[in-house]
């Protein structure tokens, strides 16, 4: 029998051991940490200088309040996290002997590590939330790419809030500006944004240092086990942008078709105090409003055959945003999908963001080539297998008329459906464009063929309006 003093001693030792172990937990191996200081997801709409900037056919309106950070960066790569350069984020760090890399790109396609195709198994050992070598079981192989560059904040951004945006980084990363830690993010196929205003040197012409530390795998990689080539690095665009203080962070445009598909209701939500104006495809103003529902007569509907798009401009204070808007209705009647009240046949393909030279990094030209192939061969539908694509892909599908089955970035292929299915474990449970005709919540992450559990986070995410890209 264990005495009271011995029991207390055992509890004390266990408590100390637990505390020590917790202190050693990495953010990228901690299911309770998905991000640090990341801003909430939002509709992609950059601040504009004037309403007129939105009234054109461009895939994305031009604006002086967004600056690309794409280009040549400095890089240091280490296969073992313990061997990474640990103080590289310092503003005075000397990176003169580092190699360079183009951003965006996949580091494996630039000679840092190796790309690999994996179908049903993880590239690392299945021992969540830890990242260990599949063969040795050691924690000494999780490649880290350390990036550096400098930038100057445009002088006409004075007094505005400044954010940095990463459109895609695989798979987990820390960000520093001028030697100060800004934040951390996971989920490689969704954008992350951080408010960097207080970290900046805004003196005219002052150079600001930017450092990014990217881990190839993290605990989130257990939900990113899609059957595809595996890459890492800053593989999508990086930019900084600014908005007026108290400006628009997010808004949603909700539409409802009625009266035999002749008329529609429209409402802008999520942005109290905003005013909006709606323009038709010829850029004539057809409606305006503020809070509440507005009724529109004789609307033109969006479909793949006739991809008619309106332009909505939302304003609050000195902030101006815009989005393209399509009016559509998708519903299921019996076993039939009806699009704008009519039976439809989806002739579709699966599509990865893929370039033979650049891996997961694709350009606007790459995306337009895919759209051209779709139209040439009478393809009207695409599934974004198996993750959200670059946000401009949805704009292109809006414009040229492609139905999209938008898939969430959720697949635990090796874990499968049965007793090892990630959806059985509560630790994993916390985890719109006109063109989106349907959503795919997950490919292979659920406890049983019924898919009732692990799809919940994805379904909850997918049902948000508007889409975060």
How would you portray this structure in words?
By secondary structure, the protein is mainly β. It is built from 4 helices and 31 strands. The chain has helices spanning 4-23, 364-376, 391-400, 455-462; strands spanning 35-36, 66-68, 71-78, 99-103, 116-118, 144-151, 161-166, 169-170, 172-177, 180-186, 192-195, 208-215, 224-225, 228-230, 233-234, 238-243, 252-258, 263-269, 275-279, 285-289, 294-296, 310-316, 319-325, 330-333, 336-339, 342-343, 348-350, 381-383, 403-407, 411-412, 436-440. The strands form 9 sheets. A 7-stranded antiparallel beta sheet has the order 1-10-9-12-6-3-4, with no helix packed on it. A 4-stranded antiparallel beta sheet has the order 2-16-7-11, with no helix packed on it. A hairpin with a 2-residue loop joins strand 24 and strand 25. It is globular, with a radius of gyration of 24 Å.
Query: Mean pLDDT score, rounded?
Result: 89
Q: Classify the beta-strand content into a percent band.
A: 25-35%
Gap from first CA to last CA:
61 Å
Name the structural class: mainly beta
Instruction: Tell me the strand order in the biggest sheet.
Output: 1-10-9-12-6-3-4
Unreliable segments (pLDDT under 50, ≥5 consecutive)? 1-23, 446-469
The main sheet comes to:
7 strands, antiparallel
Number of strands: 31
Helix content: 10-25%
Using only CA atoms, what is the Rg? 24 Å
């Amino acid at each position: 029998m264990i005495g009271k003093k011995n029991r207390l001693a055992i509890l004390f030792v266990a408590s100390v051991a637990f505390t020590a172990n917790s202190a050693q937990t990495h953010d990228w191996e901690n299911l309770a940490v998905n991000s640090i200081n990341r801003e909430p997801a939002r509709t992609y709409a950059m601040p504009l200088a004037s309403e007129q900037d939105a009234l054109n056919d461009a895939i994305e309106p031009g604006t002086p309040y967004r600056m690309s950070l794409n280009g040549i960066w400095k890089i240091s790569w280490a296969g073992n996290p313990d061997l990474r350069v640990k103080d590289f984020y310092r503003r005075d760090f000397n990176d003169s002997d580092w190699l360079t890399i183009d951003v965006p790109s996949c580091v494996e396609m630039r000679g840092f590590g190796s790309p690999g195709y994996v179908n049903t198994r993880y590239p690392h050992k299945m021992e969540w939330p830890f990242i260990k070598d599949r063969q040795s079981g050691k924690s000494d192989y999780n490649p880290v790419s350390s990036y550096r560059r400098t930038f100057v904040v445009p002088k006409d951004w004075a007094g505005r809030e400044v954010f940095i945006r990463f459109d895609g980084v695989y798979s987990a990363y820390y960000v520093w500006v001028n030697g100060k830690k800004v934040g951390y993010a996971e989920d490689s196929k969704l954008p992350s944004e951080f408010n960097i205003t207080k970290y900046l040197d805004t003196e005219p012409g002052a150079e600001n240092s930017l450092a990014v530390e990217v881990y190839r795998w993290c605990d989130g990689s257990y939900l990113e086990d899609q059957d595809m080539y595996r890459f890492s690095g800053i593989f999508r665009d990086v930019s900084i942008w600014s908005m007026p203080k108290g400006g628009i962070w997010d808004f949603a445009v909700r539409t409802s078709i009625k009266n035999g598909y002749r008329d529609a209701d429209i409402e802008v939500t999520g942005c109290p105090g905003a005013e909006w104006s709606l323009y038709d495809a010829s850029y004539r103003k057809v409606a305006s409003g503020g809070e509440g529902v507005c009724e529109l007569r004789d609307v033109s509907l969006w479909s793949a055959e006739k991809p008619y798009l309106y332009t909505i401009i939302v304003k609050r204070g000195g902030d101006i945003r815009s989005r393209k808007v399509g009016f559509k209705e998708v519903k299921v009647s019996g076993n039939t999908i009806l699009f704008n009240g009519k039976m439809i046949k989806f002739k579709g393909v699966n599509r990865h963001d893929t370039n033979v030279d650049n891996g997961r990094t694709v350009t606007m030209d790459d995306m337009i080539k895919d759209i051209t192939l779709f139209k040439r061969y009478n393809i009207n539908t695409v599934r974004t297998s198996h993750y959200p694509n670059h946000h401009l892909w949805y704009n292109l599908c809006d414009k040229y008329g492609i139905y999209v089955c938008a898939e969430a970035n959720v697949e635990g292929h090796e874990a499968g459906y049965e007793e090892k299915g990630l959806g059985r474990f509560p630790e994993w449970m916390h985890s719109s464009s006109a063109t989106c005709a349907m959503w795919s919540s997950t490919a292979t992450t659920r406890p049983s063929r019924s898919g009732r559990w692990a799809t919940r986070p994805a379904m909850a995410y997918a049902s948000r309006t508007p889409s975060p890209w």
